[in-house]
Amino acid sequence: MEMDDETEARIVEKVEYIGEAVTVLSTETAEAMQEAAQFRNVLAHTYGHDIDDERVYQHLQDDLHWFPTFLREVRETLDDQ
């Protein structure tokens, strides 16, 4: 399912804001978390037969390792404070 330009622009704006606000993450982790947020938004607003099950499965297989990395980086920053 395609996203309209206005919705996509709002999502990108919010993700960029989050990326700027969270300076505790490495660039690589921040980018991965932004992509995860975008994927979540597309998935949340896609219905029924429009969801590509293979893409969702592949995302779950390939990208979940970023979440422990995200938590570790945040925890390290909090421990340093």
Can you walk through the features of this model?
The protein has one domain (5-80). Helices cover 75% and strands 0% of the residues. The chain has four helices and no strands. The radius of gyration is 15 Å and the shape is flat. The N and C termini lie far apart (43 Å).
- Output mean pLDDT: 81
| Class based on secondary structure composition and strand pairing | mainly alpha
**Shape descriptor:** flat
Fraction of helical residues: over 70%
Q: Report the biggest beta sheet as strand number plus sense, adding barrel if it closes.
A: none
Number of strands: 0
Rg: 15 Å
**Contiguous helical run count:** 4
Low-confidence stretches: none
* Count of folded domains: 1
Terminal-residue CA separation: 43 Å
Strand content: under 5%
Strand/helix succession: HHHH
Comma- or semicolon-separated keywords:
81 residues; single chain; 4 helices; mainly alpha
Show the helix and strand layout.
Layout: H1 5-21, H2 27-44, H3 53-63, H4 66-80
Question: In a nutshell, what does this entry contain?
Answer:
The chain is mainly α. It has 4 helices and no strands.
